[in-house]
C-alpha cells in the first residue's frame, strides 16, 4: 500500500522551505525571515528540513 498523493509534495515542500529559510537568513545578513528571532531562524529552518527528512522514513 502506497502513500497518499499529497505525501511526496509535502515532504519535498518542507525540505525546500527549510532550505530557502536558511539561505535567506544568510543572504540577508541575519535580518530575514524573522529579524527578532536572531539565530533561532537557523533552528526554524532546520526544523522544516528535519520534518521533511522524517517523512522520508515513511515514504513507500
From TrEMBL:
Give its localization.
Answer: Cell membrane
Q: Which residues cross the membrane?
A: 6-28, 40-59
Could you provide one GO biological process annotation from this protein's UniProt record?
cell division
- What topology does the record note for this protein and the membrane? Multi-pass membrane protein
Domain of life per record: Bacteria
Question: Acyltransferase: present as a keyword of the record?
Answer: no
Q: Which GO terms describe its cellular component?
A: plasma membrane
Checking InterPro entries in the record gives: CrgA
Q: What does this protein do?
A: Involved in cell division.
- HAMAP family associated with the record: CrgA
Regarding protein family, the annotation reads: Belongs to the CrgA family.
Q: What is this protein called?
A: Cell division protein CrgA
Query: Which organism was this protein described from?
Result: Janibacter indicus
